[in-house]
Amino acid sequence: MYKRVIDHTWSFRNSNTKEYTHCYHTYPAMMIPMIARALLNKYSPKRGIKLLFDPYMGSGTSLVEASIKGIDAIGTDLNPLARLISKVKTTHYNEEKIQTYFTLIQSQLLEYKESYVKNRNFDNISNYKYWYSQDSLLRLSYLSQIIKDFVDHEHADFFYTILSEVVREVSFTRNSEFKRFRMPENKLNAFTPNTFNLFEEKSLRNIKGLKEFNKIHSKSKINIYDFDSCLPIPNSIIKPDSVDMVITSPPYGDSKTTVAYGQFSRWANEWFNFEHAKDLDKILMGGKKQTDENFTTHTIRKELNEIKSLDTKRYLEVISFLNDYNNSIFHVSKVMKQGGIVCYVVGNRTVKGIQIPLDYFTAEMFETNGFRHINTIVREIPNKRMPLKTSPTNKKGEKTNTMNNEYIVILEKI
Question: What pLDDT digit, counting tens, does each position of 22-37 carry?
Answer without folding.
Answer: 999 999 989 999 999 9
